[in-house]
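We include the entry.

. . .
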Amino acid sequence: MKFIYTISVRKYFSLFFLTLATLGAQAQSAMSNPYSRFGIGIIDPPGSVNHFAMGGVSSVVADPNNINLYNPASYATLGRTTLQLGGKGVFQTISSDTESETYRSGQVSEVAFAFKKSNSPWGFVIGVTPYSTVGYNITSSSVINDSTSTINRYDGSGGFNRLVIGGARSFRLYKKVPYDNSLVGSAKVLRDQRVREVNDSLYLVSPKLSVGFNVNYFFGNIRNERRIQFNSTRFYGTKETAKLTVFDFDIDAGLQYLMPLSLKWDQRKIKSGVYLTAGLNYLAGTKLKARYEESAEMYLFSNQIETEVDTTFSLPTQTGTFDLPQRISGGLGLFILGTEGKVITINTEYRIQDWSNFSSSFTNAFSSSGLDRFQHIGLGFEITPKGTEEANNIFERTTYRFGVRQTDSYLRINDIQVQQQAVSAGFSVPIMSSKSASRFNLGVEYATGGSTENNLLREELIHLHIGFTLTPHFLNPWFVERKYD
């Protein structure tokens, strides 16, 4: 007997790898944020659209219809094979004491594919997501004498991405009823029935532990340029360019725990209940391998065109490392199952990553501004009014989310740590034309941060995240095992 596997999801694979290539190739410089000039840029908050809408809470969340790349333990709780795509846009106002400017930007934020067989304790995921983003354009001017002045321009672009390959397994923490092989006849039939009933009951009410690991490949580059441009063609301008390219691996591990606190039964079925959930994620600190190159040149600026005159300095490509500090995230939550399939979750999370001891092999690769300890506290709320079978309309099947967060960034500039406060909301609505659990996801966040003290800048941001979670119908799976003689 031979076995062949037919794949009815070829178009989804094409979309997955096309988006993967797009994210890996994009410059990530569409954003414009002066704070991205420091360190490795603006570090992207973890989580998909759904986590983003709940105050950035991710380590404790285990959704059977949503891929969570930031806690690999969640892969084991996925219901089935899933394709997930996401993108984000930013509307940002940067203000100083005297003026303000508005910027808009957008980029692909996530593409992931999960391989999960129904009722299997195993789950596997491959995906890619940005880790940090750099994009800024700063201009200042100075006067040398009555006839000569200069314009100083600082430009940065690029960022680092994270390719993720991970797996997880879940464990039910109970001991099965032993089977007595000595029984025969009606005694054996009664014994078999009793064993099935007890084991099924224990399966429903027993605690569950999930364990997972990610192998992360960091790749991408950051490009910084500094120009000095004179207002007279009698003087040559100068341009200094520095490029840092990263290419190395790191790992992170996750745990998730689910424990029933209170259950109500109706004819051997759980009618309602309250569960305690807990999650932990640990990113191992490491020294990432990187390449650094630097050059300087003189140019003539005339009629808005730069013409290179001579290369004044060229540093041969150097290979070295820079620190990626360890990160620890932990969260607790309540999962409340009500009548008619109503589901409520309340989650909170604390995340920390200490950048204060950051070091690098490259003296000029990073800004001399000090880095500090990153801290994040988030609180999220989620509600689905009714289950799929009980709902009368699409609004009752939609999942609604709300959240708040307080974030102390890893940047300390002029002795002030840059902070952000934000409120968020979102929803996941079923795709009605699909006979599956596929959903359209939306999240919106309003955030303020920074300060105008000590010549710093104040931020006011609106983040918009949009995503799709595509899953097959349980009667029409994407991966079908065929058998023939």
Q: What stands out?
A: The CA atoms of residues 176 and 199 lie 6 Å apart. Confidence is low (pLDDT under 50) at residues 1-9, 24-29. The longest strand covers residues 237-266. The helical segments are 10-25, 49-52, 185-205, 394-397.
